[in-house]
Structure formats: structure tokens, C-alpha cells
Write a structure and sequence with these properties.
single chain; about 170 residues; alpha+beta; Transposase Inhibitor Protein From Tn5, Chain A, domain 1
């Protein structure tokens, strides 16, 4: 079995075909991380199936990293010390034909933010992603403030999710 097949064995997107498609996508795209879908697949049928997968509203994206997180926790349990490092990344989709995007740090840019927590050993060996949250910024109000929750709250929320996970890893 390929590493994506092992890593995402517990994935549940509500349909076995979607589960298999997700694992196939991960396998192809991880082999060529900078390639676009048609370049990664080089087969029109698989390319169209990938686009269908991305456009399927019945799947919840959180199930994909959830399966990986389960594996990361399994790797963590044998270590006494694991660093949990948070990071926030701008995903810039400016110029792409996508809907539902928010504003980025430079107002004309469009995209979304991803706030992740990574598990890493002190020897710098990565164990996996423990948490991920994505959002798009809303435009500022007339007074210059944003209508939603302050983004700094994401750091606290990430810590709270780690605290919820801690009892599952009592020796770590």
C-alpha cells in the first residue's frame, strides 16, 4: 500500500469512491507538489475526476486532515516530548477564477488564511499536522474594523484544541 493509502486509511468522506479519490489525489499531487492537476495526472479522465472531487459539496475537507491527524497522534504517543508549532499562512489565489475568497494582508489580493499546528520532534523530525483552520477575511467596515472575530484568537483556539487532545497522549 502506498504511503497515502496508509496515512489516510481512516478517511471518511461519506462514500468509499470519494475516499479512494482523495487518496489518489494525495498520491499524485504529493509526487509533484508544484504541478497543477492536469500536469500531475496527465490523463483527462482522472483530471476531470479530480475536479469533480474538488467541486463536490457533500465532502467536508476537514475529514482529510482528520485522518492524517490520527496517524500523527499515533506517532506522537511513543515520544516523551513533542513540539506543537503553530503557523499562519496566506493562500493567495489572486487572478484565479474562484468564489468565496477573502481579503489578504494587501487588500487587493484575494485568498484565504490557514492556521495550522504541526507536531515536530526536538530533532526536527515532523510527525504531522494536528490542527488546521481556514478562513477568508471580510472587508473592513467604514470605521476601518473587520466585522468578524479578531484573527489573533486563532492562536488561542489552536492551543485550546491541543489542550483537548492532551489527555489522549498522557505520556507525551
Amino acid at each position: 500500500m502506498s504511503w497515502p493509502g496508509t496515512e489516510f486509511e481512516t478517511i471518511d468522506l461519506g462514500d468509499e469512491r470519494r475516499n479512494k479519490r482523495a487518496i489518489c489525489l494525495i498520491e499524485y499531487l504529493s509526487a509533484q507538489p508544484t504541478a497543477r492537476v492536469p500536469q500531475a495526472y496527465r490523463d483527462w479522465t482522472d483530471t476531470m475526476a479530480a475536479y469533480w472531487f474538488f467541486g463536490n459539496e457533500e465532502s467536508d475537507w476537514r475529514a482529510i486532515p482528520g485522518a492524517h491527524t490520527d496517524c500523527a497522534k499515533t506517532r506522537m504517543v511513543i515520544h516523551e516530548v513533542v513540539l506543537c508549532i503553530q503557523d499562519m499562512t496566506e493562500l493567495d489565489f489572486n487572478g484565479q477564477e474562484s468564489s468565496g475568497l477573502g481579503l489578504l494582508s494587501y487588500e487587493p489580493q484575494r485568498g484565504m488564511y490557514a492556521h495550522q499546528t504541526y507536531a515536530v520532534l526536538t530533532s526536527r523530525e515532523p510527525l504531522g499536522v494536528l490542527d488546521a483552520y481556514m478562513w477568508g477575511r471580510e472587508p473592513k467596515d467604514r470605521d476601518g474594523s473587520r466585522p468578524n472575530t479578531k484573527e489573533s484568537v486563532r492562536w488561542v483556539e489552536g492551543y485550546e484544541r491541543l489542550a483537548e487532545m492532551a489527555p489522549q497522549l498522557p505520556g507525551t
